[in-house]
Amino acid sequence: MSSKPVLYHAPRSPPCRAVLLTAAALGLELDLRAVNVKAGEHLTAEFLKLNPQHTIPVLDDNGTVVSDSHIICCYLADKFGGATDSLYPKDPVQRRTVDARLYYDCGHLFPRIRFIVEPVIYFGASDVPADRITYVQKAYDGLEHCLASGPYLTGEALTIADLCCISSVSTAEAFAPIDADKYPLLSGWVKRLQALPYYKSSNQEGLDMLVSLVKGLLAERQQKQY
């Protein structure tokens, strides 16, 4: 009998939280292995054998190694989705729509969030420039238009696109608030995802850790300036 898939992750990380959300949606239990990026654990020879790009998350499914959160979510949905394929439809047209939302997350949403939190965590930044907050908020517009066709990002059904994007959007919202008057569909979508039974354990807890860390560092450094 095969063992549980191993996920190398950091609970604060939005991409790692996307994988946790996907596994929870599938009812899949993972063997979680924490990786301390700040301590350089992702640069060890052992980890580099798993993922030469030395990023997290990384999934090791009994010898099948998958890196990048979006690819991991696709892999899990394909392998463990069972009779239903609603999280990642096998129909090529529907799947391309899900893929487009995933690429929007990795190409637009998440990079803009990184420009806010990583300078604080890793490079000693003492503030978040206003233009970076505005830049994140501009990405909300694309999601608002996607939601015009249904309650979820690809229409009527929850998919891995929603799970990946909510890990990013929930993080972004902590630093770049969503204007509910300007983005009512997006605001409603966030609440819809927050109501999922596994949202708190798979996303909110790690999100709270990240926000507490970043805002705590900002407050500490700003106090030292006065």
Automatic annotation (TrEMBL):
Residue ranges that the Swiss-Prot or TrEMBL entry lists as coiled coil: none
Database matches in Pfam families: GST_C (PF00043), GST_N_3 (PF13417)
Domain (GST C-terminal) ranges: 91-226
Cross-referenced CDD domains: GST_C_Delta_Epsilon, GST_N_Delta_Epsilon
Annotated SUPFAM superfamilies: GST C-terminal domain-like, Thioredoxin-like
GO biological process, one term: glutathione metabolic process
Domain GST N-terminal: 3-84
Gene Ontology molecular function terms on file: glutathione transferase activity
Family matches, as InterPro entries: Glutathione-S-Trfase_C-like, Glutathione-S-Trfase_C_sf, Glutathione_S-Trfase, Glutathione_S-Trfase_N, GST_C, Thioredoxin-like_sf
Cross-referenced PANTHER family: GLUTATHIONE S TRANSFERASE D10, ISOFORM A-RELATED, GLUTATHIONE S TRANSFERASE E11, ISOFORM A-RELATED
Protein name per the record: Glutathione S-transferase 1
